[in-house]
Amino acid sequence: DEKTFIEHTIESFKNFKNLIDCYYFIILQEQELEFNVSEQLNNMFPNINKKIIYLKDKTNGSAETLRQALIISDVKNNIISCDCDHYLTLDDYMYIIENKDPDVLLPMWEIDNVKNWSVVTLLNGKVIDISEKSIPATQGDIYGVIGCYYLKDVEHFLNTFNNYINISDYIKTILHKNILGVFCEEAHFYGDPERLKNFKNFLQKTSI
């Protein structure tokens, strides 16, 4: 397989091009200077509408990264904030966004090691609790959250931001809203050495 990891990640959305206005790639200024990331992205994705957001410094977590990127981009609503270390099938995920009007939608997976996950309690399809790298105390079905968050109300996230480190920290403050979870039919991860090895073994046997 000759694809880069970011190409595999973007492949997750290949069936939903009509629903996506723009892809925003978030990188550090130093990464651009060292690796010329923008040119590589333009070469890899010549046919998608995209913008590259440059952050000056590393942030303290995913929530602050998202906050800074949203301020720069001026996007107001209906975003999917997706890490670049996984490939997902998103048919059910996108169906729920289109038809069930969630405030937040979280793709879920079975937990292997709780230290690798944001963890939710699910009851009747609704997320009723969330914790970072620990099991929530609330009773219900327990799943790991894959880092591909749909947020409907971006302005609320920005206006109520309170030094969150993880996006799950924000979600925990809005559990009274329509926070839904959906189990992915297929997911592959390549964000650490063990997962990368498993992904490479998978690619030797099949193709995505």
Outline:
The protein is an alpha+beta fold. The protein has eight helices and eleven strands.
Characterization of this structure:
With 208 residues, this protein is α+β, with helices and mostly antiparallel strands. The protein contains eight helices and eleven strands. The strands form three sheets. Strands 3, 5, 6, 7, 8, 9 and 10 form a seven-stranded mixed β-sheet that branches. It has a two-stranded parallel ribbon with strand order 1-2. The protein has a two-stranded antiparallel sheet with strand order 4-11. The longest helix has 13 residues, at 193-205. The model has no long low-confidence stretch (mean pLDDT 94).
Mean pLDDT across residues: 94
User: What letter string, H or E per element, gives the SSE order?
Assistant: HEHHEHEEHEEEEEHHEEH
Low-confidence runs of at least 5 consecutive residues: none
Q: Which of globular, elongated, flat, extended, rod-shaped describes the shape?
A: globular
Radius of gyration using CA atoms only: 17 Å
Summary tags:
208 residues, two-stranded parallel sheet, 7-stranded mixed β-sheet, 28% strand, 11 strands, globular
Which secondary structure elements does this structure contain, and how are they paired or packed?
Blueprint: H1 5-11, E1 23-28, H2 29-35, H3 37-44, E2 50-55, H4 62-73, E3 77-82, E4 86-88, H5 91-99, E5 104-109, E6 118-123, E7 126-132, E8 141-145, E9 148-153, H6 154-159, H7 167-171, E10 179-183, E11 187-189, H8 193-205
Parallel strand pairs: 1-2, 5-10
Antiparallel strand pairs: 3-9, 4-11, 5-8, 5-9, 6-7, 6-8
